[in-house]
Structure of BTB domain-containing protein:
Amino acid sequence: SPVVDLNVGGEFYTTTLGTLRKFPGSKLAEMFSSPAKACLDAEGRFFIDRCGTYFGPILEYLRSGQLPTQHIPEVYREAQYYEIKPLIKHLEDTPQIFGEQVARKQFLLQVPGYSENLELMVRLARAEAVAARCSRVLVCLVRNEKEDANCADALRSLEANKRSVVKFGPWKAALDISDLLDCLNMDIKAQGYQVCYSHNSPLPAKVSDYFYTFSFSWW
């Protein structure tokens, strides 16, 4: 099998066409199915416009079947891009990907409007950040219809006082409020924000358990 030099996002590798075509149904094999489809850099190396750092573990798997032990989420993303299905399946069995894809994300799919409400929280925090070191967003979390009904009056009162509240729930998953709080905290921090949450609601005791304050620090 012919030897080829690769430039993957500025990282250089040497391998064979047979290795790159190991899984015929993959996007990587398709890239090297014919010379006409290849893109070359100034030195004549085959160029792939992807992050080269995580191509090394991909190449090792193609060569020897060795599974990566580090940077699993990043390698998983690249394996998805190159459509290397056997590697994708192996990585989905690792604790990192299984926990994220099967456990956490499946839970969040059962929380109506999770992504939209998360985005709303960030927008509200940014809107209140003008000339301020911190901004705070009030969040209401209700697990079921009964809790939703219990909070109705408090939400109407906050709305009448022009106090913004981001409401999550009810949801059908078995996880608790603390699980959803951790998910929110994790996903906001993943966007680069400094955030923490506390249970210090100014509302009456009978509904305070449903309200939490997320504090964003800007400097």
In short: Strands lie at 3-8, 11-16, 46-48, 134-141, 165-168, 194-198, 211-217. The first helix runs from residue 17 to 20. The first strand starts at residue 3 and ends at 8.
